[in-house]
Amino acid sequence: MKSLILIATLFVFVTNVFAKVPNILFILADDQAWSGTSVRMMPGEAASASREFRTPNLEKLAAQGMVFSQAYAAHCKCECSRAAIQMGRTTTTLNAADKNARNWSAPVTDSLVNTLKKADRSYQAAHFGKWQWFHTPESMGYDASDGITMNEDGDTTDPEDPKQSFGITRRAKAFMDAQVKSGHPFYLQLSYYAVHQTPQALASTIKKYEGMNLGKGGKGDRAVMAAMTEDFDTCVGEVLKKLDELGIADETLVIYTSDNGGRTGILNGGKGDLGEGGIREPLIVRGPGIKGGTRSDTPVIGYDLMATVLDFVTPGFALPQGVEGGSWKPLLLSGGKAPVKRPIDRFVWHQTVEVEHPQSAIRKGDYKLLYFWDTKEGFLFDLVNDLSETRDLAKQKREIATQLQRELKAHIRAGLGDQAHGTLERGEMSQERGKGKGKGPTKKG
C-alpha cells in the first residue's frame, strides 16, 4: 500500500513539474517582409501590413499575444540568420557572416537545443523544413528532423503540397501528438519554405485571387504570392489548432517570425542588404503569462531566442559563454514595459556578398549607422523619426556617427579576425560584387 502511495505521489510530482515547463513552438517563415502579413506590425502605420495578403490565423495569434514593431533578423539572408538563431550570437561573432562559412567560432554543443537539454533533460526536440548547413540537426540536439535538406526554395512537384508547407505541418502535428502521449515537453522548430520565391500554392487557393488587381511582382505572379501566403497561414492555423486539440495551448510558448526581411512600401532596401527592409521582420509571441493584444516597440533580434527560451524553461540557467542575445521574458510578462538585457547593448549586421557595396550596420538606441566598406561612407539614421532611412545625419551628428563607426569596426574585427578586417579596410571584396539581385541601400535625402 505504501509503495502505491509513493508511486502516486511521484506521478503527481512529475506531472506538476512538466505542467510548469512550457512547450516551445517556433515558426520561422522564409523571406517574409515586415509588411508580408495582414497583421499591422506598427500601430498607426498602414504600410506595416499588407493590403493584398490574407493571414487570418496570424491575426488571431496577434490578438492572443504580443506584436513587435521593431523586430530584427540577425542577417539579411537565410543561412546566416538561421545560424545566429541556433547559436545565440551575431553572425560576425559566430564567424558565419556568409552562407559558405565553415569555421564557426562556437561548437554546436552550445546550440540552443543542446543547451536546453542540458538545462532540462526531459525535453524532446524536432526541426522540420529548411536546413542548409554542413552541421546536422542531430548534432545541434534535434531528435527528429528532415535532415540536411539543401533545398533553397522548397519547390515541389506535388500539387497537394506546394512549397512543402502541408507536409511540414503534418510532421509537426504528429511530433506534438507523440510528445504529449509520452509525457515529454518539447521544442519544435518549423522552418517553412514559404514565402520564398518562386511562389507555389494550391490551385484552389490561387483561384480565389484570380482576377484581383494584384499585378506582377518579383519572380512570380503576385496573385500566386498572395495564395502562397494564405496557404502558409492555413498551415500555421492547423498547427495552432493542434495545440488546442491536445490541450496544451495554455502551456506552450509560440513564437512566429521570419529569417530575414523583404521589399516593402515604406522601408529602405530588401532581402540581401542592410536597409531596414532587409532586416526588419514580423514577430508575434503568445504564451503563458503574456497578455493578448499587447504591443512592444522595444528592438529585439533573432539571436535573442536562446536566452528567451532558457529563461522560460529554467530561469537563471547559465548560457554558453559568448551568447549575445537577451531574454524577452521580462518584456513579454510586463506587457512590453520591461527592458531586454543583453551582454552587448547594440545590434550588428554584416553583408559583403551579392551587393554593390560591401556593408555593415550597427544599431544602438534609436540610431543606426550603415557603413559601406568600399566607399568608406557612413550613413546615420534616427529610426524612430525616420523609419524609411531618408535623412542621413552623419554630418549633423558627427560625434554619434564616429562613435558608432568605431564600435562597429571593433565588433567586426573581434569576430572575423584581423585578416578579414584588413581585407575589408583595403576594399578587396570586389570579386563578389555585382552578383546579387540588388544594389543595396543607397544614400538618400
TL;DR of this structure?
The protein is an alpha/beta fold and 445 residues long.
Protein described:
A hairpin with a 7-residue loop joins strand 14 and strand 15 (359-364). Residues 2-19, 216-220 and 430-445 have low confidence and may be disordered. The radius of gyration is 22 Å and the shape is globular. The protein has helices at 2-20, 56-64, 78-87, 112-119, 165-182, 203-209, 222-246, 276-279, 305-313, 329-333, 398-416, 418-425, and strands at 23-29, 66-68, 71-72, 124-129, 144-145, 186-191, 216-217, 220-221, 252-258, 280-281, 283-286, 294-296, 300-301, 347-351, 359-364, 367-372, 377-382. It has 445 residues and is an alpha/beta fold. The protein has two domains: 21-333, Alkaline Phosphatase, subunit A (3-Layer(aba) Sandwich), CATH 3.40.720.10; 352-432, Arylsulfatase, C-terminal domain (2-Layer Sandwich), CATH 3.30.1120.10. The strands form four sheets. An eight-stranded mixed sheet has the order 5-4-6-1-9-11-2-12, with helices on one face. Strands 14-15-16-17 form a four-stranded antiparallel sheet, covered by helices on one side.
Given the helix and strand composition, which structural class is it?
alpha/beta
**Element-by-element helix/strand order:** HEHEEHHEEHEHEEHEHEEEEHHEEEEHH
CATH C-level class of the largest domain: Alpha Beta
**Stretches with pLDDT under 50, minimum 5 residues:** 2-19, 216-220, 430-445
